[in-house]
Amino acid sequence: MLTRLSLRLRIFLFFCLVAAGGAGLAAGALYFGWVRAEPTLPTGPFVTAFVVFAFLNTGLAVVIWLLFDENVAKPINTLAANLRLRAHSGVEGELDVDAARYLGDLAPAAQAVSHTLSSSVMDTASAVAHKTARLQAEAERLTALLTEIPVATIMVNERMGIVLYDGQAADILSGIAPPRLKAPLVDYFYAADLGRAKSTLNQMGGEVAFDLRDKDATTTFMAKLKPLDGAGYMLLIDMPEVPLKPEAARPLVYDFDLLNAGDGVDMQGTALSELCFVAFDSETTGLSTDKDDVVQLGAVRVLNGRIVEGEVLDSYVDPGRPIPPASTAVHRVSDAHVVGAPDFATAGRALHGFCHDAVLVAHNAPFDLAFLRRAEGGMGVTWDHPVLDTVLLSAIVFGTTEEHTLDALCDRLEIIIPSEQRHTALGDAQVTAEALVKLIPLLEGKGLRRLSDVIAESKKHGRLLQDLN
Predict the structure, then answer these.
(1) Angle at which helices 74-88 and 425-445 pack, to 10 degrees?
(2) How does DSSP classify residue 72?
(3) pTM of this structure
């Protein structure tokens, strides 16, 4: 049971035990002396001596504990967190050997091991980077080729969940709902059309040409459904418009791990590295969740432990009121930016669709969620997603005594925040997503592998959010 407690708490309890034990031994010694003294000897001096000793003994134990906590326990926690950063998140900063100077040779030895492992990792990373660059070049050529062909391409798995889509498919999908990997096709297209095409394909083989309507059955596309070798299908949709020019091509968005992905119905029991997250942020007219309004929303999708390039939401929001100059000075959103922008109900519904079947992630999440939940009635949606807060994740990984602002967390994880993107909704959502990607392996390294584990551990640090609000 005690092994579940933090190191610092266990050390504190140890010193409490030492103080209580010292007081107990003193009480026993005084009582032993009193019962063997003259029968008329008063008990007052013995009681006074015990009280004075207990007070001084407790004070001494507290002083020694504070020194031990500051010079031994905290440095051990910091050293362990830094080693986890290097082991799981590839952060290469120097260990603070001076802070662990009372730990003997432990810190220098850890530094030496870290340098040795880093050199090996760098060699491997260099080889991986070379192959990645080649694959990226091939993907760019394929993107340009697909863009010249007036056909939208969507790859799906056996459960008709999206595995890949090109820029032209993204245009079609975005006209219906925000494009999302892993999203079922029925989120975009009429389920009966897809069902008939899949049934015909399974009976006849080959490929099936059919009319495909959007999910509201208002627009019809000419489409073909083709089986893939191994698993899944390819959906090809004729583009009525002139195709995009290659220089304007949107990159392919894909994750081939989704070909064999399960349904993922039990989010609480799913591994962190297999979940879909949406890191989001909002900029507002002020800091009151009751009286102020949202002026900008930004969101970034994280799937299978990686940021999905190209799947972002970035929208100004018309608050229906003047934006205070003091707020504009922080987030640089002025009244001119929100002219013609959607109201919060419309923008919130778009964000809700973007977050379908995802875990919400934000830095100091209660603040941003308060605005969304306050407007649920007008949006016509319910914000009942599981939520993770990077403030609490940082506390779990690095300890509650560290600073947990977004800037401090990014500095610790070696994430660069461009100054022009800081305090913009999309910019803060992007760095929150990058922080999450680096925090996931650190959490797994501490044995917190499933969403339910992390949520349970986060509840132990809820006071931090109260302090921030």
Answers:
(1) 100
(2) I
(3) 0.76
The one-letter amino acid code at 451 reads: L
pLDDT digits (tens, 9 = 90+) for 301-336: 999 999 998 899 999 999 999 999 999 999 999 999
What's the pLDDT tens digit per position in 82-140? 777 766 666 666 666 666 666 766 666 666 666 565 555 455 545 555 565 566 665 65
Nearest to 360 by CA among 463, 469, 451, 465: 451
- Matching residue, tokens 């949520």: 455
What are the tokens at 346?
């419309």
SS3 (DSSP) at 289: coil
d(CA 415, CA 308): 17
User: Which DSSP string corresponds to 437-467?
Assistant: HHHHHHHHHTT--BHHHHHHHHGGGTHHHHH
How far is residue 361 CA from its own chain's centroid?
5
Is 458:396 a contact under the CB 8 Å cutoff? yes
Nearest CA among 397, 415, 156 for reference residue 261:
156
DSSP 413: T
Name residue, tokens 């970034």: 300
